[in-house]
Amino acid sequence: MAEKQSTLTYEGIMKELVGGNFRPIYLLVGEESYFIDRIAEYIEKHAIKEEERDFNQRVVYGIDSSPAQIMDSARALPMMAKYQVIIVREAQLMRGIEQLEKYFKKPVPSTILVVCYKKEMPKSKKGWIAEAEKNGICFESKKLRDSALPLFIAQYLKQKGAEIEQKAAMMVAESIGSDLNRITSELDKIFISLPESRRRITPEIVEKFIGISKDYNIFELRDAIARKDVLKANNIVKYFDKNPKSGNLHSLVPQLFSFFQNMMAAYYCPNRNREDEVAAWLGLRGPWAAREYISAMRLYNPTKVMYIIQKLRTIAAKSNGLDNKNTTEGELMQELVFFILH
């Protein structure tokens, strides 16, 4: 039985597709192109047989198409095949796309229409959005939070039969950012280089193939700050000042803000000395993820954490030029780290 549309996730949609269960409408909406592309690519490659594609599969682009053309094509019957497939790429560039509501109300069962709308979900989910959701699938592809990237990396590699150490996953996420297409591209390059006897990615391997230092990165700086390792923290900041590709203020501030914001929340945990309870309180992936916060709470009191959060906001404003004419990014980093550690 098909899963209800309202509960379908990316994994749920892919599970249906792999099982050969295709819906008449796939309205794929959102700013994260990775999930939209993966769904569309799977349908393109697997919905109908290769020998049926010449007459029964079309890939068009929104800028070159009109809703009327799409609807006319979608209402046609397949030629000697169970389905025809129509994929509309860059549908956000199509004028009057909301007119597809007419087709979404009564889709043709033998047509698989995939609309890739790479733009934020419209605020109003009435009309064409509601009809697509009612008679097919309307999937919103959201950008992943930075905190979710290491888990995405680990799951992606697991599907390929490989694993990655936690620190290595953090290094990849911090080095590349939230561009999932670029992340998977870099992971694929690393995967190909791994020997079949050891499909495990370590920080040393990440350092070799992506170019980020395993000793001088934001993950290590956050760890040094959490342990109040003044010497190590200052050495990393100096390294960042000379090697901005390894770490910079714009990537450091959000990481530290998230860390200290979580720490402030952890103070309100009924039993903040238990890893499992702190992890559950903060919504972390497991008890191990709470260890750093528990250790740091012994070194930073709530008042200091509150002042650090305020300082992070001030430094973020200065990095964008507010009340700052001459202070360099490197000097702002040193000012921030000094304030945190003293």
How does this model look, in words?
This protein is an alpha/beta fold. 52% of the residues lie in helices and 9% in strands. It is built from 17 helices and seven strands. The chain has helices at 10-18, 33-46, 53-56, 67-75, 101-105, 128-135, 149-159, 166-176, 180-193, 203-210, 218-226, 230-242, 249-266, 275-282, 291-297, 302-319, 329-341, and strands at residues 25-29, 57-61, 84-89, 111-117, 137-140, 163-164, 200-201. The strands form two sheets. It has a five-stranded parallel sheet with strand order 2-3-4-1-5, sandwiched between helices. It has a two-stranded parallel sheet with strand order 6-7. It is elongated. The termini are far apart.
Topology record:
Elements: H1 10-18, E1 25-29, H2 33-46, H3 53-56, E2 57-61, H4 67-75, E3 84-89, H5 101-105, E4 111-117, H6 128-135, E5 137-140, H7 149-159, E6 163-164, H8 166-176, H9 180-193, E7 200-201, H10 203-210, H11 218-226, H12 230-242, H13 249-266, H14 275-282, H15 291-297, H16 302-319, H17 329-341
Parallel strand pairs: 1-4, 1-5, 2-3, 3-4, 6-7
Helix pairs in contact: 1-2, 7-8, 8-10, 11-12, 12-17, 13-15, 13-16, 16-17
Summarize this, please?
This protein has 342 residues and is α/β, with parallel strands linked by helices. The chain has helices spanning 10-18, 33-46, 53-56, 67-75, 101-105, 128-135, 149-159, 166-176, 180-193, 203-210, 218-226, 230-242, 249-266, 275-282, 291-297, 302-319, 329-341; strands at residues 25-29, 57-61, 84-89, 111-117, 137-140, 163-164, 200-201. The chain has a five-stranded parallel beta sheet, sandwiched between helices.
